[in-house]
Amino acid sequence: MIRWQISLATAPTAVNIPLPTAINDVDAQYAMPTGATNLNSTLTGGDNLVATGVRANFVRAKVVSITGWSGGRVQILG
Question: Which terminus of the chain is more exposed, N or C, with fewer CB under 10 A?
Answer without folding.
Answer: C
